[in-house]
Design brief:
3-stranded antiparallel β-sheet, about 260 residues, Nucleotide Exchange Factor Grpe, Chain A, domain 2, alpha+beta, single chain, 6 helices, 3-stranded mixed β-sheet
């Protein structure tokens, strides 16, 4: 028992130094071993930690710990609130910035849509103008292709108009020579061949002679000089051609000057 208490005391208080018992006290200690053990136990008991005392100490310590820990928890609880306030402000400012950015993007989108509509209208107008220009050019090209041969013929007709008086004088000269100089028949035939050759040259370029002798009168190609009665030629027919006419294609270069028969009287 004493050994156990000594062990416990040694284990509980390792710094305590025990000295050997003096000789004069050894005998007394042997006689009173039991009371000494009790004394030792009584003296050493306060140094031991009994299980009953541990909860008391724990109970006495825990309120202090709780009391000390409570303000820290309160501070910990208050700290997130104080930290949450700047974060909330940051979030609010972030949302406000996002709202402003959204409004700016919406305004830019509206402006872009307006510009797109304007561009579409301008494109439609330009497309319509281009289509009209292409159609006008096609019509001009077709009309030019159709009128080119006519224009070429008309150009030839302008040149032929200067030749017509020469042919008229040639014919008048041949008629007069045939009446006044019948002996020069061979010469007259030669000049008549030259006049015929000249008319054929004009015909090769599309210039046709109009000589409506005995044909019905046509006011679009004939020019009436006068009317004479005739038993041989029906009324309203060409009785005599004073001057031949010419045309090129559908274009009349010169009408034929004629005398119309008034019929038999």
């Amino acid at each position: 028992m004493t050994q156990k208490h000594e062990k416990d005391s040694k284990s509980s208080d390792p710094k305590k130094v025990r000295f050997p018992t003096p000789p004069w006290k050894k005998k007394a200690s042997e006689e009173t071993e039991a009371p000494v053990e009790d004394k030792v136990v009584a003296e050493e008991a306060p140094a031991q930690e009994t299980p009953a005392e541990k909860p008391a100490e724990a109970e006495s310590v825990e309120p202090e710990v709780v009391a000390e820990a409570a303000p820290a928890e309160a501070r910990d609880a208050e700290a997130p609130k104080s930290e949450a306030a700047p974060e909330a402000k940051k979030e609010d400012s972030h949302f406000s910035n996002l709202a402003d950015a959204f409004l700016k993007v919406q305004a830019a989108l509206k402006k872009t849509q307006d510009e797109l509509e304007t561009t579409k209208a301008e494109l439609a107008k330009a497309t319509d103008g281009y289509t009209r220009a292409v159609a006008d050019f096609d019509n001009y090209r077709r009309r030019t292709n159709e009128e080119r041969p006519k224009n070429m013929l008309y150009a030839k007709g302008d040149i032929a108009k200067d030749v017509f008086p020469v042919l008229d004088n040639f014919k008048l000269g041949l008629d007069a020579a045939e009446k006044q100089h019948p002996e020069a028949k061979a010469i007259l035939e030669g000049f008549a061949m030259i006049a015929t050759q000249l008319r054929n040259a004009l015909a090769q370029h599309g210039i046709v002679e109009i000589n409506p002798l005995g044909e019905p009168f046509n006011p679009q190609e004939h020019e009436s000089l006068s009317m004479m009665p005739s038993a041989e030629v029906p009324a309203d027919h060409v009785l005599f051609v004073q001057r031949t006419g010419y045309k090129i294609g559908e274009r009349l270069l010169r009408p034929a000057s004629v005398v119309i028969s008034a019929g038999a009287q």
